[in-house]
Amino acid sequence: MKLLCYQDGASHRCAALITDQGDTLEVIDLVEAAAAEAPGAAPSGPWSALSHARDVGDLAAAPAEALAALSVFLNAESSTTLIRRIHRSSLLAPIPYPRRNVFCVGRNYLEHVREGDLKRGIQTPIPQHPQYFTKPPSTVIGDQGAIEIEPWVSDKIDYEVELAVIIGQPIRNADPESAMAAIFGYTIINDVTARDLQRQHDQWFKGKGLDTFCPMGPWVVTQDEITDPHTLAIRLWVNGDLRQTDTTAHMHFSVGRIIADLSKGMTLMPGDVIATGTPPGVGYAMTPPQFLKAGDLVACEIEGIGRLSNPVRLRPDAQLR
After folding, report:
1. Residue ranges of the domains in the chain?
2. Burial class (CB in 10 A: 0-12, 13-18, 19+), 294
3. Is residue 319 very low, low, confident or very high in pLDDT (cuts 50, 70, 90)?
4. Domain 102-320 classified CATH 2.80.10.50?
5. Which residue of 93, 99, 229, 236 has the lowest C-beta tally within 10 Å?
6. Is-contact 94 261, C-beta < 8 A?
C-alpha cells in the first residue's frame, strides 16, 4: 500500500493512494473507508485506529490487524466507489510533524565520502560504525512544499536524496534481522544542507536543521511492497539536470545494520523516521560547486516509491535582513 497525508480544508486526513495521475491523485480516504465498513455506527475494532489516524505515523503505530483490514478493503471491488480525486498540491509530508527528530546517517555511500574528500583535499577514514545526526521536526515539508532559503543565514544550500525508513513497532537492542521485521514502510527524504554552517559548526546538526530542510514524501510505501530496500534506483534532478544517480545497493551499512545499531540501548518507536544516507553527486563536490538558489526545482526519485519535488524560494521575510 501507498499511504499518505493530505490537507482537506482545516484538517489533515490520511488516505491510501490508488492512482498517481501526476497533478491529480486518486485516493481512498481512511475515514470514509471506516464509515463504509460500519454505516451509521462509530468505527470499532481495527477500523477505529485507522479512522483516528492523524498521519502515517499513527498508521505505523496501528495494530497489524488494522493494516490487514485496510488491505482487504482496498482489494475489494466495492472500494472503488469511494475513490476521490485530490490535487497533488494538497499533499502533506506523510508525517508532517514527527513526534521525535528525524534520525539520519551520514557518509553511508563511500563514493559520496570520496567526492567530499577530493573536494576538500583530505582523506578521511572509512566509517567503521554508522554516523548519526538528527533533523528537528520543524525541518519537515511535503511534496510541492517550498525549500525556503535566507541568504544572510546561508548561501551554500545543497541537496541529498535519501531512502528513509519508517519504524512500525517498538524495538530495542535488535539484531539486523529483527530490525528489518520492525519496518513499517519506506519514503523519500531530501536532506537539504547548508554547507557553510556545516563547516562553521564542525558538526552536522545546525547546517541540516534549518526550517524546511527535510522534504519528505510523497507517501509511505508499506514494507511488503519493497522486497529488498538495497536494490532500488535512487536519483535527484535540479531543474531537470540529473545530479545524483545510483542504487541503494551501494550503501556502506545496510538498513538492518543501521536500525539494529541505532536501537542499542535506545528504544525506537512506531513512526520514527530514519534516513539512510545519500549517494554521490551533491552540489558542493561539483566543479565549480552548484548550490541551490531561489527559482530552482529539486526532484528526488526512488524506484518503487515515487517522486518528491520541491521548489526553492526566498523565505518571505528574508529581505528584511
Report:
1. 2-92, 102-320
2. middle
3. low
4. no
5. 99
6. no
